[in-house]
């Protein structure tokens, strides 16, 4: 179910509807979100980048390859394929964790989104972003050595996947105000600012019923807000772009930190450093 | 009977002047542990008018004021380093005027803090280095553009590699990074220890093949980092 590589306000109705996302039910800035380690961006307003700096900062980020998409492309991250599953909610988080690890200089490890399927009792169904985040924070995703893409049961998982998953966990997230609680413009500013930190964004579109990862921005003065949104999709397509109001996510969560997952055997040289 | 009289006597001020403001939360946290502290005696509107301080400033825990939607004023507190701290809620609104203190012990004792290096030792020139950057992620957006490019830009990593140096795996690290057990990662510990207690961000280097970690304030530009690694000093 590949989609076109550029989704706009004109062609969005041609994009096939998905059933992977349940609409947000927890309020921005609520104690319920805080208990899931999701902190509102407005709690640290200093991270917001003023609109008059966007052009310079976005162009700079593309020139010096700062965005998550650059780190993924440099590491030759393979495209993900959720096939006929409704697990986009897990593919989006797995991509964010992978990208954040790459930004930290960790070697690339492909994660298996199916290993978070226990959150929906191994049924092929959609889920809430907030609950997916809470589950990923607690249980993590095992690597693709343990499970394949495009499945939703644990029938063919290899032993040891649960222990491996604990090594690949996000820990903390930023929350954005979203389409219901705030204005579209406020949402755009928060998303742009988080991407510039650079933080991979776990995003959701209600019109699409779909969750995925936002990984970059392109300054384009022909488009609304002068932005082309660069996302990473999970239908065997990878990089796609969105523009206009359709590009502004309804939900957006910026990953703040992940567990350090490098196995010591992977770089014994570092151990030669005096401890 | 005496107890009853004592209770009534103690409760009279509360009846006369309204319930006091209090911070309800644990008085001990582990380092890196996070907890919600509920503020009692204030409405959410009153709470938004208050200021929150933590003393002492050095190594203080992270305290975030949460905007709750269910009329529960909440502080999110996360320990950073061991020590004794006071969370102070400065209530300064028309109906209430007081400072509310909540004593908090983070960890078991006080972390020893390395004295800052008065003079950074020069690097032996001509060597090849394992390179790491330790920084505070929450403050990274406020760093000068050129330093942000060192920390997050692939262009700098390519230049480092081309010059024969090696980025430590996972070596672009927040100073609070943990592994799956919640502990300081063993492979990054030498770099984190070298940078501990110093002003972030830090550039930490060790010879390829092994040796002591040396650390410096992160130079202002990519060019200066490469100059430091090649020539042993920034000219």
Please, what is the average pLDDT of chain A? 92
| Rg of chain A (C-alpha, Å) | 18 Å
User: In which range does the helix fraction of chain A lie?
Assistant: 25-40%
Number of helices of chain A: 9
Main interface: chain pair and counts: A-B, 55 and 55 residues
Cα distance, first to last residue of chain A? Answer: 51 Å
Distance between the termini of chain B: 82 Å
Question: Can you write the helix and strand succession of chain A as a string?
Answer: EEHEHHHEHHEHHEEEEEH
* Mean residue pLDDT of chain B: 81
| Sheet with most strands of chain B | 4 strands, antiparallel
Give the biggest sheet of chain A.
8 strands, mixed
Structural class category of chain A: alpha/beta
Please indicate the percent range of residues of chain A in DSSP E strands (runs of 2 or more): 15-25%
The dominant shape of chain B is elongated
Oligomer: heterodimer
Helix count of chain B?
6
DSSP strand (E) fraction of chain B?
25-35%
- Overall helicity of chain B: 10-25%
Strand order of the largest sheet of chain A: 1-9-8-7-6-10-5-3
Radius of gyration of chain B: 24 Å
Q: Which features characterize this protein?
A:
heterodimer; A: 275 residues; alpha/beta; eight-stranded mixed β-sheet; B: 235 residues; alpha+beta; four-stranded antiparallel β-sheet; four-stranded mixed β-sheet
């Amino acid at each position: 179910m590949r989609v076109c590589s550029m989704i706009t306000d004109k062609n969005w109705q041609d994009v096939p509807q998905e059933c992977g996302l349940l609409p947000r039910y927890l309020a921005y800035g609520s104690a319920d979100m805080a208990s899931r380690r999701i902190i509102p961006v407005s709690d640290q307003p200093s991270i917001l980048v003023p609109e008059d700096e966007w052009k310079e900062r976005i162009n700079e980020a593309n020139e010096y390859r700062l965005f998550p998409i650059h780190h993924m492309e440099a590491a030759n991250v393979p495209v993900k394929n959720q096939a006929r599953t409704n697990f986009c909610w897990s593919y989006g988080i797995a991509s964010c964790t992978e990208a954040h690890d790459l930004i930290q200089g960790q070697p690339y490890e492909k994660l298996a989104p199916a290993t978070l399927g226990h959150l929906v009792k191994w049924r092929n169904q959609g889920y809430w972003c907030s609950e997916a985040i809470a589950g990923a924070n607690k249980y993590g995703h095992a690597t693709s050595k343990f499970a394949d893409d495009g499945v939703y049961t644990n029938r063919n998982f290899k032993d040891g996947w649960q222990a491996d998953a604990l090594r690949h966990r996000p820990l903390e997230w930023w929350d954005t105000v979203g389409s219901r609680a705030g204005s579209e413009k406020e949402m755009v500013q928060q998303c742009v600012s988080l991407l510039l930190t650079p933080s991979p964004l776990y995003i959701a579109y209600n019109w699409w019923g779909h969750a995925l990862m936002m990984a970059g921005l392109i300054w384009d003065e022909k488009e609304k807000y002068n932005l082309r949104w660069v996302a990473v999709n999970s239908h065997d397509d990878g990089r796609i772009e969105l523009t206009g109001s359709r590009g502004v996510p309804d939900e957006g969560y910026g990953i703040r930190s992940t567990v350090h997952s490098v196995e010591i055997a992977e770089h014994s040289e570092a151990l030669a450093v005096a401890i | 009977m005496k107890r009853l009289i004592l209770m009534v006597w103690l409760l009279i001020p509360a009846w006369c002047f309204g319930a006091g403001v209090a911070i309800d939360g644990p008085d001990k946290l582990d380092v890196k542990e996070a907890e919600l502290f509920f503020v009692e005696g204030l409405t959410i509107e009153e709470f938004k008018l208050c200021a929150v301080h933590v003393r002492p400033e050095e190594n203080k825990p992270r305290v975030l004021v949460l905007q709750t939607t269910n009329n529960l004023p909440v502080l999110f507190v996360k320990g950073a380093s061991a020590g004794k701290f006071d969370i102070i809620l400065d209530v300064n609104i028309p109906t209430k005027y007081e400072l509310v203190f909540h004593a908090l012990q983070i960890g078991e004792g006080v972390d020893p803090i390395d004295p800052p290096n008065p003079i950074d030792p020069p690097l032996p020139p001509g060597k090849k280095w394992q390179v790491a950057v330790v920084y505070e992620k929450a403050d990274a957006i406020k760093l000068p553009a050129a330093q942000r490019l060192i920390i997050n830009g692939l262009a700098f990593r390519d230049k480092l590699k081309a010059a024969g140096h090696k980025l430590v795996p996972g070596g672009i690290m927040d100073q609070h990074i943990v592994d799956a057990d919640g502990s300081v990662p063993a492979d990054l510990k030498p770099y984190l220890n070298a940078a501990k207690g110093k002003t972030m961000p830090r550039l930490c280097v060790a010879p390829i093949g092994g040796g002591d970690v040396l650390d410096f304030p992160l130079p202002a530009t990519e060019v200066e980092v490469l100059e430091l690694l090649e020539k042993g000093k920034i000219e």
